[in-house]
């Protein structure tokens, strides 16, 4: 069995493109960045800790595989988390407006006993067009940015602000499907075979 250590519906949808059956078991961990921690180290640590937290529950078969991921929007080496308010969303989207930023999405795939763990950080560059304060307020009222890193969702209404992306679209959404399929194959799970044989 494959276990997705995330409550994100976006990650669930992306993983369902690769495999037919998996369980969703959200990991409850402290997601506070450490002092002096780089964004890359942070997202890699988050994915690894989410996977480890699920592994520690001990409710598995020996062949089970855990997948965890974490996504951070990064501007000028600062992590932009989920907005706490409209004013916080304005602060973030003003920073992102008419410029480029990075979206870092980490991936951790491991077996339950931890004898094999693979990790990867996928970095994509996103270019935003200029965004007005009125647009930010209208976007906030849609409800979409309120639980999104960086205050926007590229797969949703927030796509109207994105003029260009260099990297992995699926990673920006929340789970890098190319890397996930590749790592699953190393654990004996072939995504194409899984979907063809459904």
From TrEMBL:
<protein>
    <recommendedName>
        <fullName>dTTP/UTP pyrophosphatase</fullName>
        <ecNumber>3.6.1.9</ecNumber>
    </recommendedName>
</protein>
<comment type="function">
    <text>Nucleoside triphosphate pyrophosphatase that hydrolyzes dTTP and UTP. May have a dual role in cell division arrest and in preventing the incorporation of modified nucleotides into cellular nucleic acids.</text>
</comment>
<keyword id="KW-0546">Nucleotide metabolism</keyword>
<dbReference type="InterPro" id="IPR003697">
    <property type="entry name" value="Maf-like"/>
</dbReference>
<feature type="site" description="Important for substrate specificity">
    <location>
        <position position="71"/>
    </location>
</feature>
<dbReference type="GO" id="GO:0005737">
    <property type="term" value="C:cytoplasm"/>
</dbReference>
<dbReference type="InterPro" id="IPR029001">
    <property type="entry name" value="ITPase-like_fam"/>
</dbReference>
<feature type="site" description="Important for substrate specificity">
    <location>
        <position position="10"/>
    </location>
</feature>
<keyword id="KW-0378">Hydrolase</keyword>
<feature type="site" description="Important for substrate specificity">
    <location>
        <position position="155"/>
    </location>
</feature>
<comment type="similarity">
    <text>Belongs to the Maf family. YhdE subfamily.</text>
</comment>
<keyword id="KW-0963">Cytoplasm</keyword>
<dbReference type="GO" id="GO:0009117">
    <property type="term" value="P:nucleotide metabolic process"/>
</dbReference>
<dbReference type="Pfam" id="PF02545">
    <property type="entry name" value="Maf"/>
</dbReference>
<dbReference type="GO" id="GO:0036221">
    <property type="term" value="F:UTP diphosphatase activity"/>
</dbReference>
<feature type="active site" description="Proton acceptor">
    <location>
        <position position="70"/>
    </location>
</feature>
<dbReference type="GO" id="GO:0036218">
    <property type="term" value="F:dTTP diphosphatase activity"/>
</dbReference>
């Amino acid at each position: 069995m494959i276990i997705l250590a995330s409550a994100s519906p976006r990650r669930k949808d992306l993983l369902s493109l690769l495999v037919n059956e998996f369980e969703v078991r959200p990991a409850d961990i402290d997601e506070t960045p450490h002092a002096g921690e780089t964004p890359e180290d942070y997202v890699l640590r988050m994915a690894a800790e989410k996977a480890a937290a699920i592994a520690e529950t001990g409710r598995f078969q020996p062949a089970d595989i855990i997948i965890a991921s974490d996504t951070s929007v990064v501007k000028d080496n600062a992590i932009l988390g989920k907005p706490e308010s409209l004013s916080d969303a304005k602060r973030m989207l003003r920073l992102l407006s008419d410029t480029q930023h990075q979206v870092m999405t980490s991936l951790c795939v491991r077996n339950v006993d931890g004898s094999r763990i693979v990790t990867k950080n996928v970095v994509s560059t996103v270019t935003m067009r200029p965004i007005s304060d009125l647009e930010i307020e209208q976007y906030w009222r849609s409800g979409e940015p309120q639980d999104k890193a960086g205050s926007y969702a590229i797969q949703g209404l927030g796509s109207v602000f994105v003029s260009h992306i260099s990297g992995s679209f699926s990673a920006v959404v929340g789970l890098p499907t190319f890397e996930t399929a590749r790592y699953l194959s190393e654990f004996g799970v072939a995504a194409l075979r899984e979907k063809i044989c459904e």
